[in-house]
Request: fold
Amino acid sequence: MDVPLWLALIVVGWLGVKLIRPPWWLVAVLLLCGYLLADSLLSPVIGPAIK
Reply:
């Protein structure tokens, strides 16, 4: 069964927020930092490291 990445991220994020109850600002900072890193000059370095 192939699950789209966006669906998996939504499910994992929802479960993490429901079970761990992090503060809203921490969730916002993590999302913003992930978005900025994915579109930065470091993305070619980070990509192979996480694969």
Notes: The first helix runs from residue 5 to 20.
